[in-house]
């Protein structure tokens, strides 16, 4: 049986410090209120990571992140599953026992980076699962 | 000391120090599979012209970034997670003042090859200009790996590829050297030696330079280079720093 959980403060969300300039973030509604689970902009800049000298392309990339509420009933755009619906219902009945459904990436894609290594060789790397294409409640 | 269920761990809400942020940036680069920021590179004036390897790799980058695995540009691209071009090489020739056969040899520094990656394909790319002597004849270009050199006799060679072309042809000649990759993965601290021979239709050895094959004296945009395609092994769980 799930151990009862202390009720978390629902509005308090962990945010990356906006002052981190290499991660430019726009979260649309900010912490203002109940924002439905969706994709938010998160741009990762190689210049600000101190890597621009070696990178031929790209200069940075949009990584995005998922944030927002996953409250029952789910709309179609929340990409949820039968299990998520069941968990959300049980959470309504036993909020102390079963946690809320999470807003997470449901589709990810790769990025490619072209750079010089320390011996001036040119390297092309494909890194998988780096860009959020879609979010959902799971 | 708390009793009862422990709340889920919440990342402490405080401003990170400069050192901590620097560590975070390194961690981000590591997640991206990129090494630590190498020393800022100020390319020497000569290399500021577009060089052959970066030009070729930029085309691959656009194909990979656009998920163009149609093989139009390169058949191995779709199955590759990493493509490395190697440009650091030493060239040795045995041409006119020795008896036949003539050859041109390229020694490549492969120390940057990462461990844990499987080679799916490897190519040696060399530019050929039109050759006038002999005029309009068939040339056979063969490539060998220099497995072991001996002071008192010829080197041990391992055949890699053979291409047939016309003396008047021009463009990039691509020789498949995938078969050599087994050895270099075992010991990539040792330079990879590739030896190029050219023979005419009647079997006479010919100086590769006379056949129009450009070595290191070629302009930047036509320098020979090596390209290797790797398939990442199932991604090991990356331990954070």
Structural account:
The complex is a heterodimer of chains A (138) and B (241). Chain A has one helix at 82-93, and strands at residues 23-26, 38-45, 55-57, 60-62, 65-67, 103-116, 122-137. Chain A is mainly beta and 138 residues long. In chain A, strands 1, 2, 4 and 5 form a four-stranded antiparallel beta sheet that branches. Chain B contains three helices and ten strands; from the N terminus they run H-H-E-E-E-E-E-E-E-H-E-E-E. Chain B has helices at 18-31, 52-65, 181-186, and strands at residues 82-86, 89-94, 103-108, 117-128, 138-148, 156-166, 171-176, 192-200, 205-206, 225-232. The longest helix of chain B is centred in the first third of the chain and has 14 residues, at 18-31. The model of chain B has no long low-confidence stretch (mean pLDDT 80). Chains A and B meet through strand 6 and strand 7 of A and helix 1, helix 2 and strand 1 of B. Strand 7 of chain A pairs antiparallel with strand 1 of chain B, so a sheet runs across the interface.
């Amino acid at each position: 049986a799930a151990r009862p959980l202390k009720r978390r403060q629902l509005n308090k969300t962990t945010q990356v410090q906006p002052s981190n300039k290499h991660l430019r973030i726009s979260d649309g509604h900010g912490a203002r209120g109940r924002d439905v689970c969706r994709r938010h902009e998160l741009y990762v800049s190689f210049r600000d990571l101190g890597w621009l000298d070696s990178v031929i392309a790209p200069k940075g990339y949009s990584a995005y992140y998922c944030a927002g509420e996953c409250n029952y009933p789910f709309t179609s755009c929340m990409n949820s599953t039968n299990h998520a619906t069941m968990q959300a219902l049980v959470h309504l009945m036993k909020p102390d026992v079963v946690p809320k459904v999470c807003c997470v990436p449901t589709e990810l894609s790769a990025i490619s980076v072209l750079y010089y290594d320390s011996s001036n060789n040119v390297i092309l790397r494909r890194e998988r699962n780096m860009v959020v294409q879609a979010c959902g409640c799971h | 000391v708390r009793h009862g269920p422990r709340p889920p761990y919440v990342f402490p809400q405080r401003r990170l120090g400069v050192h901590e942020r620097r560590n975070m940036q390194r961690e981000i680069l590591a997640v991206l599979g990129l090494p630590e920021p190498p020393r800022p590179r100020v390319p020497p004036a000569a290399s500021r012209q577009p060089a052959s390897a970066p030009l070729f790799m930029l085309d691959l980058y656009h194909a990979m970034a656009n998920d163009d695995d149609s093989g139009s540009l390169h058949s191995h691209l779709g199955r590759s997670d990493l493509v490395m071009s190697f440009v650091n090489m030493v060239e040795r020739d045995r041409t006119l003042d020795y008896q036949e056969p003539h050859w041109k040899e390229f020694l490549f520094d492969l120390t940057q090859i990462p461990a844990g990656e499987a080679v799916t394909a490897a190519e040696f790319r060399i530019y050929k200009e039109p050759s006038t002597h002999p005029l309009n004849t068939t040339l056979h270009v063969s490539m060998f790996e220099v497995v072991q050199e001996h002071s008192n006799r010829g080197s041990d060679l391992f055949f890699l590829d053979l291409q047939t072309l016309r003396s008047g042809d021009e463009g990039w000649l691509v020789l498949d050297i995938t078969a050599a990759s087994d050895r270099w993965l075992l010991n990539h601290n040792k330079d990879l030696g590739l030896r190029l021979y050219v023979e005419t239709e009647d079997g006479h050895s010919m100086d590769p330079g006379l056949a129009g094959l450009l070595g290191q004296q070629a302009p930047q945009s036509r320098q020979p280079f090596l390209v290797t395609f790797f398939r990442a092994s199932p991604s090991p769980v990356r331990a954070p720093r």
